[in-house]
Specification:
Layout: H1 2-26, H2 34-53, H3 61-83, H4 91-108, H5 111-129, H6 140-160, H7 165-185, H8 194-208, H9 212-237, H10 244-267, H11 271-303, H12 309-326, H13 332-347, H14 355-369, H15 374-396, H16 399-416, H17 420-437, H18 447-466, H19 470-488, H20 495-520, H21 531-558, E1 560-569, E2 579-584, E3 594-604, E4 610-618, E5 621-622, E6 633-641, E7 643-645, E8 650-652, H22 658-664, E9 667-672, E10 678-684
Antiparallel strand pairs: 1-2, 1-9, 2-8, 3-4, 3-6, 4-5, 6-7, 9-10
Helix pairs in contact: 1-3, 1-20, 2-3, 2-21, 3-4, 3-21, 4-5, 4-21, 5-7, 6-7, 7-9, 8-9, 9-11, 10-11, 10-13, 11-13, 12-13, 13-15, 14-15, 15-16, 16-17, 17-18, 17-19, 18-19
Transmembrane segments: 9-26, 38-57, 64-84, 90-107, 112-129, 141-161, 168-187, 193-209, 214-231, 243-263, 275-300, 306-326, 338-368, 399-417, 424-443, 449-466, 475-493, 499-516, 531-550
Keywords: Membrane, Transmembrane, Transmembrane helix
Pfam families: DUF2157, GDYXXLXY
Length: 686
């Protein structure tokens, strides 16, 4: 146990230091200059690699210091984008970060780096298609083929990395991008064929991809596709009168689920398969109950202009909840579906019926649930907690007290129950309610806010240090990451102060871990690394950072300065801190519809502002060279229809200054190199 505690303490210390590192540079502290910031970040990256290879060569920290170095490279690239005002969360940031990280993952075969590389790949795809610092309108076929390319890449990764965790995650990512095509990437007026193609793909996957992790993933996305397609179909062809078919469809789904469950049970031969059987039951239950609830509510609305909440509650109890609780011989899928329908419909009546009646119903459900199987008990107690939370909010409107009461309820069930999956479910719900309790957006910023945050970390430490179940520890690590992400986006407490706090905590944890390890003479087995190929990649990372920084500095010092008119808005980057999004008057050009690389002609007017004159070239082909004068400036960009992106749409600012800059800034000073590349220097009021 001492070895596990020391290892966990080391990892927590490194995690907090990593968060402090990101927070510090995201705060964009104005006291540090451009080169100073980049130099500090690059020095830390090299330091982590050197410490991993030398001082801690035979230590547990060797692996994690190396991983920390790989992460710090991404921070360096993001920092270059911040200090030289490149696009926030640019897909190029994650693509550049991906290249060495994936090479490291290949050379070291480190599981974390493998998964992290896949995550960077998805972020590259996401921010290419959904850029955060500007908006572009793509043609539907263009969007379709871009998303299809993402699907194919993930499919290739899944195929050639089997069998592994990477393969499963890539397979899930492939289905996720297919789903994005279905819900966002196309319009059904132009792509009426796609639902049929999507259905055929699902059938092929279900028939030929039979290993259970992949099969469950396919079933999950099939269910989501079925729900959305069903409601779209009914709304389009039947209106309110067609929801009677939903009940029939729900029954069909349940029976398909029953036979699918029997088939999976016959093939099951271990605990891993049992987990996927449970997941399959959940998916079938959710899909069938969602369709059934939608149909029932539409039918009630169609039959009655206004119906009593007591009638709805009676229907829930008599037709769904009571049969599911009492009829013990029925199939599990049928039972869970009836319960889900009853509990979801009951939620519509919670705040409308008498508090006494609802309290009595909740109490009866809670008492009965403890004589039921684990699955029924879990569903019932979740419903009880949600009903109780809705009643407390309606009665007292105190979200802090409500969340704490729900956390205590889930915590007691987690502690009392002995069923493995039930414990995991209520541990997740416990962490979720407690994490919400630490949010400054939901509770008042007073001394209790600090108490809740400290208690949350104590709860995390308790699970990590004193619970031996690996799944429970994984859940605790997940919510630790979520906690740090939540704190990053809280505006009431500055990133600089958060960074200092996390750094102090991280250092203290590392000191404690080192002291305990020496005191107890604890040793860890460490896998040896071949450092020569890794050194080549690290050298290329350093060269890349130095070259890009030198190029940006040369650009900003020797480029021609021009003045542009703008209109800003203010968000926060994923890892680069606060920035102002800039919309220029030269960004939207009426009367054109082009795609690709573009050069535009800008000319200074009498006020000193450079204005758009015309398009000089598109994709290397000159369009209006006769408009160009010797005093004009040619600026490169990428054109999407009538929108031009110049790469200067983001201006990073110190934390909490974005609103003030947004209100005052009217013009931007931009440096343009001889080749036409633009680099944003500053924004001003006049």
């Amino acid at each position: 146990m001492a070895q596990r505690i020391v290892k966990t303490t080391y990892l927590l210390g490194l995690l907090f230091l990593a968060a402090a590192f990101v927070y510090f540079f995201a705060s964009n502290w104005p006291e540090l200059g451009r080169l100073t910031k980049v130099s500090i970040a690059a020095s830390f990256m090299v330091l982590f690699y050197v410490m991993s290879a030398t001082v801690f060569h035979s230590h547990l920290l060797s692996r994690w210091l190396f991983i920390f170095g790989a992460i710090t490279f991404g921070v360096c690239v993001a920092l270059i984008g911040q200090v030289y005002n490149s696009h926030a969360d640019s897909f190029l940031l994650f693509f550049v970060w991906l290249i060495p990280t994936s090479i490291f993952a290949r050379l070291t075969r480190d599981r974390f780096l493998v998964v992290f590389s896949l995550g960077l790949l998805q972020l590259t795809f996401w921010f290419y298609y959904f850029p955060s610092s500007y908006h572009i309108e793509r043609g539907e076929w263009t969007s379709f083929f871009i998303l299809l390319f993402f699907v194919i890449i993930n499919g290739i990764v899944a195929l050639f990395s089997r069998p592994s965790l990477l393969s499963i995650l890539a397979y899930m990512a492939m289905h996720s991008w297919l789903f994005v095509i279905f819900i966002q990437g196309i319009s059904f007026e132009q792509f009426r064929f796609w639902p049929y193609v999507y259905t055929i793909l699902f059938v092929l996957f279900l028939l030929y991809v039979k290993k259970q992790p992949y099969f469950i993933c396919t079933v999950l996305f099939t269910g989501m596709f079925g729900i959305i397609q069903y409601f779209r179909f009914v709304e389009q062809y039947f209106g309110g009168n067609g929801y009677i078919f939903g009940l029939v469809l729900a029954v069909i789904i349940v029976y398909i689920g029953i036979y699918g469950l029997r088939w999976m049970t016959k093939r099951s031969n271990g605990k891993v398969e049992k987990f996927f059987i449970v997941a399959f039951q959940i998916i079938v239950t959710v899909v069938a109950s969602m369709i059934a609830v939608g149909s029932i509510m539409q039918l009630l609305s169609f039959w009655f202009d206004a119906f009593s909440p007591y009638v709805l509650l009676s229907i829930c109890i008599l037709l769904f909840v009571t049969p599911a609780l009492l009829w013990k011989r029925q199939n599990d899928v049928v039972r869970y579906t009836l319960l889900a329908i009853g509990y979801i419909l009951g939620a519509f009546s919670v705040t409308e019926v008498s508090l006494i009646v609802m309290s009595a119903y909740v109490a009866v459900l809670f008492l009965i649930s403890w004589r039921m199987p684990a699955g029924v008990r879990t569903m019932t107690n979740i419903a009880v907690s949600l009903y109780a939370a809705m009643m407390m909010l309606a009665e007292w409107s105190d979200i802090r007290f409500t969340l704490f009461a729900v956390f205590v309820f889930y915590g007691i069930i987690y502690w009392v129950t002995k069923h493995t999956y039930e414990r995991l479910v209520f541990l997740i719900f416990s962490f979720t309610s407690f994490l919400l309790l630490t949010s400054a957006d939901l509770v008042e910023m007073d001394w209790t806010y600090v108490v809740w945050n400290v208690l949350f970390l104590c709860f995390v430490a308790f699970v990590l240090f004193f619970r031996t179940n690996e799944k429970e520890q994984s859940i605790a690590w997940l919510y630790t990451f979520l906690f740090l992400i939540l704190k990053y986006y809280e505006w009431l407490w500055s990133l600089l102060h958060k960074s200092m706090t996390l750094a102090i905590v991280g250092v203290c944890l590392l000191i404690v871990a080192t002291f305990v390890q020496k005191r107890k003479a604890i040793s860890f087995s460490v896998r040896e690394q071949k450092w020569l190929p890794l050194l080549v990649v690290i050298t290329l990372q350093v060269v890349f950072i130095a070259y890009v920084t030198f190029d940006k500095e040369r650009h900003i010092r020797h480029g021609e300065q021009i003045k542009l008119q703008l209109e800003p808005i203010d968000p926060r980057s994923l890892i680069q801190g606060d920035y102002v999004r800039l919309q220029y008057d030269i960004s939207t050009i009426e009367g054109i519809d082009e795609w690709g690389k573009v050069q535009v002609i800008l000319r200074k007017d009498d006020t000193g502002v450079h204005r758009f004159v015309g398009i000089y070239s598109v994709n290397g082909k000159k369009r209006n060279p006769h408009l160009y004068r010797e005093s004009d400036v040619l600026v490169n960009g990428n054109i999407y229809g009538n929108t031009i992106i110049y790469g200067i749409e983001t201006y990073f600012v110190p934390e909490k200054t974005g609103l003030d800059i947004q209100q005052r800034a009217r013009f931007a000073y931009v440096r343009v190199s001889q080749s036409g590349d633009a680099l944003l220097e500053k924004i001003v009021e006049q």
